[in-house]
Amino acid sequence: MNEAEVALVAYRLQEAREVLEETQILQAQHKHRGAMNRVYYAMFYAVLALLASRGLSSTKHSGAISLFHREFVKPGTIPVEIAKFLDIAFDLRNKCDYRDFIMPERERVDELLVAAETFVTEVEYALAASPVETMERA
User: Fold this and answer.
1) The domain spanning residue 67 has which CATH number?
2) Residues in the chain where the model's pLDDT stays below 70
3) In terms of Cα–Cα distance, which of 5, 13, 14, 36 is closest to 23?
4) What is the reported pTM?
């Protein structure tokens, strides 16, 4: 990775960590819909960091998630049991953000917050464990 790519990966990981903090604040204020949104975005920003580490990107969330599964889950870099929480959060976030009268339960958001923390940590481990030459595309 070049210097700009390294900076972008670090920035996106920082975004993911900050959004996890925002989620806790929203949950404490009983703002579960907003917290669900932030849970998803924490994982999404971590995915964007992974993609950036390989010079990949997508203009759509579904495209980024598809690339994530193809490049990192299928080869085993990120375990399937952790990756599934991104899909769950994406689905629930879409329902909460775009459908009327959908309110996530506090317990479900709490569970997904724990999963998001694990997800972001797993992404950080994957990035730290990958030598630069394997993270670059030829």
Assistant:
1) 1.20.120.330
2) 131-138
3) 36
4) 0.91
